[in-house]
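Quick one: structure for this chain?
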Amino acid sequence: MASETTDLASVQPPPAPIAESPAPMPPTPGPRRLKVVHKTAYVYDRPIARSVQRLLLRPINDRLQSVLEHRLTIETEAGPLPLNERTDYDDVFGNGTTRIEVAEPFTQMTFSAESIVELSDVDPFQFPEFRARPKFPISWMPSERMMLAPYLTPVELPETQLEEIYAYARQFVDKNHGDVLETLFDVNLTIFREFAYVPQSTSLETTPFDVLTNKQGVCQDFSNLMICMMRMLDIPARYVCGYVYTGNTGSVRSVPDATHAWVQVYLPYIGWKAFDPTNGILPATAHVRSAVGRHYRETAPISGALYTAAVESLSVDVEVT
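Got it. Here's what it folds into:
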């Protein structure tokens, strides 16, 4: 997975080494309206007898992000898939989901999603006033820990590798004197500054430990590493898939015209707060969320099953304007 870009009124060169909090980003001129066009085409070397697909192509609609328009077209060589062959619902994470089942043989299938989204102009550095800054260790009530358990459990890795990830994460806690917010800002910026963005250097099998060891990857890898670090520090974290407006300049660490990945962490009395370690920023009015989940597999824009063994060719075209 890849993606990223900037007109970002929200993207700026990273501030000088952290002292207290990173300098706030320049204010945006109010809500931003973005159009997202996402087209995916599959071609197979033999007819597919049957296919079941799950689509997460409808952006999330909530208080920070309003979906004003959304249109999804699904076609095979036989023509558009009738609406009565689609099922729309919200999955367990609240993601807008479409499920389809194609029972007629086909060799080509195209998904075209067009959305217009309005993003609220909220300062990402605006945090509630605390009588005392949140410090480690964070204390969760039993009911909270039960609800947050899926976001507190790190990916399964050998214990020695998890210990190394924890030791790396703990360095940030100690350096920032146990301050939770400063630790989060520091991790987010350090991954941006010290890990190389190298497209096609990793795969879906790349683990957070691999990323820590090789210090390179793409947005999915940096998000996976930060999520694992946060969970080892007992901070709930989840994976976010979506799009980022870049102006198609490529001036940030991303591949223009593709999907993007970042992180949300859950903080007491704050809720879910977004961090983009690939670009070292806090997402604001340039990041469009399409799905959230415990890990990337639960947020994939398109996933499914084919009931015929075939060689698949895939092309993806994403445009954010």
